[in-house]
Amino acid sequence: MEMNNKPIGVFDSGIGGLTVAREIMEQLPRESIVYFGDTARVPYGSKSRETVTRFAFEGLNFLLAQDVKMVVVACNTVSATCLEELQRYSPVPVLGVIEPGARAAAGGTRSGIVGVIGTERTIKSEAYVKAIHAIDKNIKIHSRACPLFVPLVEEGWLDNEAARYTARTYLEPLKKEGIDTLVLACTHYPLLKPTLQAVVGEDVRLVDSAYETAREVRRVLEDGDLRRTADAPPAYRYFVSDNPAKFIEVGERFLRRPIDPISVIDPEVPCQDMKSKGRKSV
Ligand code: DGL
Questions:
Q1: 253 with 183, same domain?
Q2: Ligand 1 cavity residues, CB under 6 Å
Q3: Are 166 and 221 found together in one domain?
Q4: Domain with 132 in it
Q5: Is 75 a catalytic residue?
Q6: Does residue 222 share a domain with residue 192?
Q7: Does 8 share its domain with 26?
Q8: What's the pLDDT tens digit per position in 48-81?
């Protein structure tokens, strides 16, 4: 297939990367997408650097085997852990989510006090602190790991009492620090936006790196002359490593479009046969 008409690969540890896929669908509606969510091994955010790196290479290799023209690492944990290693290895461009999010935060804060929330690994890596300070070293940053948000989202508990209680517990201390911008440094958190906004108040701007990342995808495609040119409508394919039914249930509610076809793959086995094709067989 001609390079331009190949799909964009989107990689995440689970369902949360659909926030980035949705933005790409909206901003680049002619592009095809192959999505891989490593639902068997989510969460990545509480695992070691070595394990996250190994999983990330397996995910990248799987997408490269799908003949993609570029890969978007929607997962903040992977972007914070080993993006440069993936970029050095990959024959096609690999884009992470941290720089786009950091740019939006640094450009948007008026008070110069920014909150960053993410997984334990993302916060420990200080990747956002470094990226924001590379733009403006005077910005004060208050970071907090919020590990319970990921299972809440994977469970589809986006605005019930458990979600509200967890959000209050994590975010009220940040609010007291006087932040005017809160970076949602995790794929999953944009799904909790209304709940998070209610806790921090309307005067705090939530930065969702999905939007910024999709703009960056457009720039990379334009710079590389890689925009899709085919007349046929774009194709969206989904791959997960486990539990497609849950992925479909939560994902369709979020994407507001069918998650079909979906297949289950084992990222540890290169070039394997697909265990299922099409949602009827899921
Ligand atoms: N995708 C991860 C991230 O954006 C969140 C889920 C996980 O911990 O794997 O950091």
A1: no
A2: 12-14, 16, 42-45, 75-77, 118-119, 122, 150, 186-188
A3: no
A4: 98-208
A5: yes
A6: no
A7: yes
A8: 999 999 999 999 999 999 999 999 999 999 999 9
Identify whether residues 195 and 116 lie together within a single domain.
yes
Name the residue of 186, 208, 209, 240 whose CB sits within 8 Å of the most ligand 1 atoms, as the mutation to test its pocket.
Answer: 186
Which of 208, 231, 264 terminates a domain? The answer is: 208
What is the pTM for the complete model shown?
A: 0.92
Look up 186 and say whether it is catalytic: yes
Q: What is the pLDDT of residues 98-140, one digit of tens each?
A: 999 999 999 999 999 999 999 999 999 999 999 999 999 999 9
Q: Looking at the 3D structure of the chain, how many domains does it have?
A: 2
Those residues whose C-beta lies under 8 Å from the C-beta of residue 202, and which sit 6 or more positions away, are none
Domain boundary among 193, 208, 223: 208
Atom index in ligand 1 nearest the CA of residue 12 equals: 1
149 and 130 in a single domain? The answer is: yes
